[in-house]
Amino acid sequence: MAQSSGSPRTYDLVLLGATGFTGGLTADYLAEHAPDGLRWAIAGRSKEKLERVRERLGAGAETVDLLVADSSDEASLRDLASQTKVVATTVGPYLEYGAPLVAACAQEGTDYADLTGEPEFVDRMYVDHQATAEASGARLVHACGFDSIPHDLGAYFTIRQLADAVGGGITEPVTMRGVVRSNGTFSGGTFHSALTAFGRARQMRDAMQARKRVEPRPEGRRSKAVAGKPGRDKLLGYWLLPLPTIDPFIVARSGAALPSYGPDFRYSHFAGTKTLRYAAGGAVGASALAVAAQVPPVRNTLKKRVPQGSGPSEGRRNASWFSVEFVAESGDTTVRTKVSGGDPGYTETAKMLAESTLCLALDDNPPTAGQVTTAEAMGDALLARLQAAGLTFARVR
Questions:
Q1: Which of 39, 98, 214, 380 is most deeply packed, by most CB within 10 A?
Q2: Under DSSP, is residue 242 helix (H, G, I), strand (E, B) or coil?
């Protein structure tokens, strides 16, 4: 874990954004599953709202402290970061609200976890804070929810299965595809982040290029996210639609960081549907949303229709599910795996963020610093936590 250059930290973890919908679910999960003796606090702008959250958490929550901090107040964020080993934040869109907290954690040597699915934000944070975080020992771990844990740890799990299948280390090139299916709804925060990203294509490209200019490449190895082609997957039986999300970039960065992915790793990312009609409809819908996001008045209207901080009922969440199926090929060997769970946008996302934060705070993880992926920062420890928490990672025979 990150090392403090000053006095011992007051808290093991602090959750910023607990008064929002997903933040509230994360607080609920921590209250129910935190180990005895965990020192934690919830933080936000309004002490009154934080008090209501703590009251809702029930018996034992009186030991959870309340910290007032504002995402726009750098001094309050610096003070927050200095008091804890780990900060988890659900306050997005991160391009608008996230940068000051990342800066504070990098400066204070405090581990950081968020739910961002915004590639531009992640790339800009790398450029601005990588050197500081490496020097301070802070681990900056983005995308700790449905973006991108099932994909990142699913690929990590699949690589382990592939290594077993070939009888040792992977020595030949690996091509892998991940195929996502779900009946769940995405959160308001995810929708706002997607609209923001669609409307900032040029800025996203600029941020990616800026990162490429300063990020070192692995020596003697390659790892790359590859745009897949739409069509029918005969092995899986789905029609595939390429997904332009942050997930393939996260997976490829794990492949670059971890030699176990082999000398040449390539990953493609898709949505899978059972019929061509649904695949075509999804393509049309995504294209229409991307076009609409280019027009500020239309983009703002869409954001108002799906407000942040709200979400579906518990019954609707309980009926939701997701799966990500992976196919990895290396030489003559093919391995299939599947990651599955419940409601992706809210329930499982809160679980994944909470377990990531606990893992960073409490577990014996690989020695890393700077901006790192979940697979690189926590790997086996987080995989074990998520399996124990009910997510399924399985090889398909």
A1: 98
A2: strand
